[in-house]
Amino acid sequence: MTTLFDDLPLRGLDPARLPTAVPPRTDDDSGWQADRAARADALLEGLNPPQREAVLHHGSPLLIVAGAGSGKTRVLTHRIAHQLATGRVRPSEVLAITFTNKAAAEMRERVADLVGSAARAMWVSTFHSACVRILRREHAAVGLRSSFSIYDAADSQRLITLVTRELDLDTKKFPAKGLASRISALKDELVDPEAYARSGDADDVLASVYARYQDRLRQASAVDFDDLIMRTVQLLQAHPGVAEHYRRRFRSILVDEYQDTNHAQYVLVRELTGHGDVREDAVPRAELTVVGDADQSIYAFRGATIRNILEFEADYPDARTILLEQNYRSTQTILSAANAVISHNPGRKPKRLWTDAGAGAKIVGYVADNEHEEARFVAQEIDRLGDDDGVRPGDVAVFYRTNAQSRALEEVLIRVGLPYKVVGGTRFYERREIKDAVAYLRAIANPDDDVNLRRVLNVPKRGIGDRSEAMLAAFAERERISVGAALERVEEAPGIGSRGVTQLQGFRELMTGLRELAAGGAGPAEVLGAVLDRTGYLAELRASDDPQDASRVENLAELHAVATEFEQAEPDGDLADFLERVSLVADADQIPAEDVADGAAEGGPREDQGVVTLMTLHTAKGLEFPVVFVTGWEDGTFPHMRSLADPDQLAEERRLAYVGLTRARRRLYISRAAVRTAWGAPNEFPASRFLADVPDELVDWRRRESSMAALRAGGSGWGGGASAWGRGGGGYRRDDDGGSVIGSGRPPRRADADRSGGTPPRTARGSSSPKASAPIPTLAVGDRVTHDSYGMGRVVALEGSGPNAVAKVEFGTHGTKRLLLRYSPVTKL
DNA sequence: ATGGAAATACTTTTT
DNA sequence: GTATTTCCAT
Known about the structure:
This protein is α/β, with parallel strands linked by helices. Helices cover 41% and strands 14% of the residues.
């Protein structure tokens, strides 16, 4: 979808990227009618037959099953342009929904290339942005301020912590995180607190937390991410007039990444298209187009249901389905590997990507002894490709399963001097100083936003302690007003010492002054500047000699730059508009759209070679790179430990592998490390089960086995033994379980030595770790144990094995704990 | 009320 | 190993 590298020559591989023959629409309308048919036809040029069909289809709902790299964005944009060109739909009647803001921006741009300025009238946005837009327009109907706050995951966890405290629940026993994810899951299913309480198997604690949480959100005029969707659906269902307005407005609705939609989003689409409305006089249903690929569904953990795409034809009985299987991105070798890996997923609709681009280079495989060696190999190859093949750093991406894995790679890239950039990780808007600054802005825009007000009440330190805060909150509670409103009447609140009252008054004056500034028409940047100044936040950071604080100042400067930029782009935007933007950014949005590898073209400065991009496999979805490294192919790393036991989660991991492999255009590398340091201690990891699914003839193994495995297999020394990892060696391939694809029943891991049948299995797994550790107790469910601080307990569940084994232990009065056995002082009785 | 030390949990993946 | 949280001393 994203085309960071359109400028790269990819010989004969890319008919879909030929320049389009459609001239931008001029403002001279006289020729418009006459040109219409010609324009519409021109949009079909350069498309293959199924793509053409997908553009032409109209009348009934359309599902486009678009394999990776099959030109789906091209089809979508051409379809929109075609709908406009034939006059069936006007620009303002188009609603195109994507997964990320970046994808939305790209789609808008590419439609604009086809239809010109008319693109501006369309809604091209994410689910969340579209819902914010609707909710802000209809805020009165849902009982929100127009400047309502949007809480991110951290904000809602904060609020949940407050709620559990208020309910006198043990925050240890009911961690906010767990409650938050369960509430989120309920919202994804459109279950509101009342409905949940009424349902048969409701958990009392969850029900009361959920009800109170939702109440507090309402009081604070705030919504969380899931509310954006749920409350929009509720709005449309409760107010037929409003629903009708939007049904009349949107005549063509297109949803990208449909496999990632959850139930709430599914219902939202039905509401908007009017498919739920069976009345005689209903607005005619909007044209519905969904695009997706079940094999690329990697967000089930967040509530996405493949069901939505698998059952599309059942949900919309007259639906038409079109398959796009021709790939314009990768070589056949890469596609064959990806097809082979994904084909092991059970219950999948068959689909095989193909290309006429030829086989291309073999996939390069590498087994490193540890993650540093793996990183070294990656860096060395990037360097070599630069010399031999003219590959620029900007052409290369390195993927990994979890963010923590970026560290070893970064260390090596810094050492060898390769420029790189990590996408994601600790996100900009999650940094403490940014959250603090944004919290001020939110509290200014929305005086009832208690979570954010309380966050900054004593930041920077101004002598307002827990006690004063608690008294103020208690007063607010009694008066049934928000803490913000209570602050206006601090003098009436009992139990606050005179110093506390003074401090709170000072804070109140501060906020009042800032609100006046904002109300007086100051832009977001000016308000932000005033916040940083008047609160003393910036002064405090500047005064500090902690180098971390220096970088905090820089981050705040960057936020200020973002605000300034926003003011220039949206001169009419107010603080609430800015906050909306800030609340809905994602990792993937931070990937530079064009400048990564541009500029090195003819005449450009030689230095501008772009930078190597490091990111997780999840973030990589939708992107493509000429050269891709997928690292960490180890059972326990990828597939991740926590998915090994569950076939569904394992299937999702496999889809993740599929996504990773299909990002590569020309060259693909897969690597693993035999030993990887996680949580501070080195562990041995066996080869990923997914590796065995990559056909051996597609892979050029540069190194087939780790030194350790070679030794164990009876090799005669270090490094030398060609027998150890040369051709015929008993490499990674497993003969004993090649056919087992689900792997739910078997032990999650086994040592390499077990497989090659050489040395007998070592007694304590993980003992090969350089750091000899205390023996890890072998536990079984039901065992009784003692813990140095929790006392006696009983094992109720086990996860993983070896050094990373985690036991869930019930400790009577101390509740149930998840313990990483390696670190926990537990003894078997 | 605040700051520092010590304990402790943590690692999927994110709109 | 790191970031956050908790506890204790001031």
